[in-house]
Amino acid sequence: MTEGPTGAGTGPGRTGSGFRVAVREIREAAFRAVVAAGASSGEAATTADLVVLGEVLDGAGVLALADELDRVPRGRRPVPSSGDALVVLDDPARRGPLLLGPSAADLAAAGSRPVLLPGAWTPSVEWILVSATARTGTPLLATRIRADGSPGTCVLATADSMVYRAPRPGAFGIRHTAYAPGQHDAGRPGEGIRLSRWDGDTRSLELPPARTPAHHHERFATAMTHGLRVDPGPWATVYGASRRYLVPATPESPHP
């Protein structure tokens, strides 16, 4: 186990510009931080797995969680949905893709309608798809929806853990992915991420895979053996939040 962030520069876990941290420790810190922020243990477990996946694949899982921790709502708070052809989620807590994305992806995989997850396109979109297809076995396509309703960047994750990227949905045989402005909350216009089942054939794609199962396996094998180097700033945020796990903040026992 590495030392805490307060010992920066003095411990064996410190290497280069970041901390060398065990995969298990990243997952545990992420889980505790999300529970301490107010989420359920089930939500926290899913988020922690996604943080690890993001850190292994892109070195950004801890950063994503640090950015979203202040949007974890206290207690159970339902996410209203609307729309007929498209399920539009409108979370009052404004949770980010890392926190709300897994549930949205599972809903898209299980249902017959696409799901619109409000928010900006971030690297966590790919992690959400990779994780969801592993759980459900359903190929999923994520499309960036701009504020004006037009489609942009797309990512496809298939049941055999291949990931493909394209600048527009036409590359995956999808012609219409935009949503009418009336399907989004007119009072809060903004970008969104459209998650949908994909029923195409990868043999028809004229795209090389951006990620493969071999790539995932290599990254995880290296991480399990050598740990992961995390950015000290975001790690300090997550690690500090995790220390409040099961320790109430009171005048007699203030949290750090």
Describe this structure in words.
The protein is of the alpha+beta class and 256 residues long. Helices cover 36% and strands 16% of the residues. The strands form two sheets. A seven-stranded mixed beta sheet has the order 3-4-5-9-6-7-8. Helix 4 links the parallel strand 4 and strand 5 (115-118). Helix 2 packs across helix 3. The relative contact order is 0.17. Mean pLDDT is 83; it is low at 6-16, 180-189 and 251-256.
Coarse morphology: globular
Q: What is the topology, as strand order, of the major beta sheet?
A: 3-4-5-9-6-7-8
Radius of gyration: 19 Å
Distance between the termini: 20 Å
Strand content: 15-25%
Largest sheet: 7 strands, mixed
Q: What secondary-structure arrangement, pairings included, does this model have?
A:
Elements: E1 14-15, E2 18-21, H1 23-37, H2 41-58, H3 61-68, E3 81-82, E4 87-89, H4 97-110, E5 115-118, H5 124-136, E6 140-145, E7 151-157, E8 163-166, E9 192-197, H6 213-226, E10 228-230, H7 232-242
Task: Describe, in short, the structure shown.
By secondary structure, this protein is of the alpha+beta class. The protein has helices spanning 23-37, 41-58, 61-68, 97-110, 124-136, 213-226, 232-242, and strands at residues 14-15, 18-21, 81-82, 87-89, 115-118, 140-145, 151-157, 163-166, 192-197, 228-230. The strands form 2 sheets. A 7-stranded mixed β-sheet has the order 3-4-5-9-6-7-8. Strands 1-2-10 form a 3-stranded antiparallel β-sheet.
